[in-house]
Structure formats: structure tokens, C-alpha cells
Design goal:
The structure is a homodimer. By secondary structure, chain A is mainly α. Chain A contains 11 helices and no strands. Chains A, B: GO terms for molecular function: DNA-binding transcription factor activity; transcription cis-regulatory region binding.
Chain lengths: 214, 214
């Protein structure tokens, strides 16, 4: 594919312009995210990704050797980079307020951000993907654990809890809520279910003033 | 495959004996469950299932036209029939005690029963399977909703809760706990995480005597 003709000449132009190349890469990933979110890893078609991103198959393969590289790039971009990573800690919020904001923002991204939806589906289909994807959940659990430590110091929650264990349970509960909401309502009831979840979680955390966060 | 030779003569024997046929079918399903649990839907091999169940490919295909029929039979058998269905309501238990027993039993089956583990993995991979699998979760949510109604009447939990909504949340929380325990510890910490979950859930349900159940 990279041996001759139209695609090669395009590639020369791309290599000359880093900004243009980055922009093309992003366009390919955006098209790939839609494919992966809709059809999953096995169903996603490189030809359709090339078509949807208005590039050629050669250019797609210049950026991503294999479909698995594309999957990895999407999972990394969704979970480690903006906007998702930013959701984990809103700068202006601390302690319990930041925990609640983070859970709401992540739920919003699961519903509305096609990059995150693609990444979530790819993580579910990890058995099919011949590269090692990042371990899910651990980053978010650690982040929430840190925020719960802040909350405890600030006297916002029951003293003497194990913040890391509570963080594990918050992320587990969140994960189940989004999964069942996805399977039973295509995530239509997710915002409502998240609020119900937060109300219950604030009780188990012994939040001093739960209504402040709801 | 069914045209001549050894497999055909075996099949004649099987048709003559319903009990023998049922036994063969169960043996095939047991072998298929191991394959599906270990390799998933896409990776499971009919040839290996025939080998592991000590049958021939012809006999496997006599019982199951396609791999998807086998998947459907496993999901139905795991979720609608014994032993899983029995776990949903232990006869001797009622109300909150039955809710707790049901959650513990289902967690045990997720960890130890290969039929249930295969079914759980197949449900996750439903996108890949060209038959309609039963809708997950709804049966269990309804069952727990009924038990919570009993618990409310018996004064075991906070009055005025919506039993169906609480049941939805218990099943969602359970689902996330087993998912994260699976991903981060291959379900090794599942029993401990389930006990932690039950302790938290009993608080949000306003259980009158939570220690009775833990």
C-alpha cells in the first residue's frame, strides 16, 4: 500500500507538515471512535474509517499499522488525556465536592463523548484485541481515594473510613450503574441513576451535609 | 458431516435413547462452557468442544446447528434453570435475609460455576453472537424487588423506600463489584468485596439490625 502512487505523494506532504499530520491523525481517530462505538472491535472496518475521515487507506496505515494500534490510541486518549483525565479532578473542587463532580462528569462523558464510549466498548472487548490495553479503573480509584482523604481531613465524611476501599466501592458501583443503564435503557436513564447512586453513596460515606452535593 | 460413517451410526443410537441423548447434550454443553469461559465466543472451537466432550463433530452438530445455539443454551441454562435460578430465592429465607443470601450465592456462582462464568462472558460479548440472548438483570431485579417488599412489610428496612428502585441499585452495585473484582483480581477478592458491599447496602436500605446479616 505504501509502495507507490497517490498515497505516497500525500504522505510526503504530511511528513512535511507536523500540524497537518496531527490533524489528519485526530480525524482518523475521531472516525475510528464512531466505528468502534457502533460496531465494536471486530466489526470496525478500516475502509469505512478511511472513508469517514476523508483519507485513504494508505494514510490510515501510515498513522496506524494495525486496527489494534487505533484501539490502543483511542483508549489512551479517552482515559489518560483530556477531556476525560480532566474530569477526574476539577481544579476548583476539593474533597467530597470533587468526588461528586468527577462521578457526574465521567457519567456525562460515558453518555455523550463518542471517544469515551468507544474506549469503554473496547475495554469490554479486550479479549479480542491483540495489544495490552491500560488496566482500567485503577487510576480513577487512586484519584478518588486521594479526594476522599481530603474529605476526611476536612471533616466532610465519617472519620476512620479507609479512603482507598471506599474509592474502590464508588468506582465499582458507578461501573455497574453505567453498565445496567446501558443494557436496559441505552444510557437514557443514566443521569437520573447517577443522582440516585450519589444519594446512596453519600449515606454510606457518612457525609456530614449530603444535601450540599445533590 | 452427517452423510456417512461412524457419526451417523452413533446418531441412530442416540435417537433411540432419549436419556442417552440428553446426557450427551449435557456433556457437550459442559465442554462448551469451559471453552466459552476460557476463550470467549469468537475463540471457542467446535472441534475442541467435540474432543473435550468425547463426541464427534457430527454429534455436536446434531444437537447444536451453530455455535450461537450452544451459546444461547448455556445462557438459558445458567440464568433460567437450576442451579442459578434457585439461588435467586432460597426457600427457607424471606425478606432481607433472602436478599443477602441471593447476592452471596450468585457471587459464589460467578466465581465457581463454569456454566455461569461462561454465560456471564457470553452476555458481555452479546454483540458478537447472532442470536437474541435473554435480557440480563431484569429477572433478578424483579426478584429482589419482591423480597425487599417482604422486608419492608416485616419492618426489616427503612419504610417508604421504592423496592424496585433499591433492587435496581443492588443489582447494579453487585454487577460493578464482580466486574472490577474480575478485572483487577480475577475474582480472587470477590467474597471479601461482596461482604463489604453488603455492609454498605444494608446501611442505605436502613436495615434495622444490619449485623444480623453479616
Amino acid at each position: 500500500m505504501n509502495r507507490a502512487g497517490r498515497d505516497d505523494s500525500r504522505e510526503v506532504l504530511v511528513i512535511r507538515s507536523d500540524a497537518r499530520s496531527m490533524e489528519t491523525r485526530e480525524r482518523i481517530l475521531a472516525a475510528a471512535a464512531i466505528e468502534f462505538a457502533d460496531r465494536g472491535y471486530a466489526g470496525a472496518s478500516i475502509a469505512l474509517i478511511a472513508e469517514k475521515s476523508a483519507t485513504g487507506k494508505g494514510l490510515v496505515q501510515y498513522h496506524f499499522k494495525a486496527k489494534s494500534d487505533m484501539a490502543l490510541a483511542i483508549v489512551r486518549s479517552a482515559f489518560s488525556e483530556a477531556p476525560f483525565a480532566n474530569l477526574l479532578g476539577v481544579d476548583s473542587a476539593h474533597g467530597l465536592e470533587a468526588v461528586v463532580a468527577s462521578i457526574r462528569s465521567v457519567a456525562g462523558a460515558f453518555r455523550d463523548d463518542v471517544m469515551v464510549r468507544a474506549a469503554v466498548r473496547l475495554m469490554r472487548e479486550y479479549h479480542l484485541i491483540p495489544v495490552t490495553l491500560p488496566t482500567p479503573y485503577v487510576g480513577w480509584i487512586a484519584r478518588i481515594g486521594g479526594l476522599l482523604r481530603e474529605a476526611e481531613v476536612a471533616g466532610e465524611i465519617h472519620p476512620g473510613l479507609d479512603p482507598d476501599r471506599e474509592a474502590w466501592h464508588l468506582v465499582a458501583y458507578f461501573s455497574g450503574v453505567q453498565e445496567i443503564s446501558n443494557r436496559l435503557s441505552a444510557r437514557e436513564d443514566l443521569p437520573e441513576r447517577i443522582e440516585e447512586m450519589l444519594a446512596r453513596a453519600l449515606v454510606t460515606l457518612g457525609a456530614v451535609a449530603p444535601d450540599r452535593y445533590l
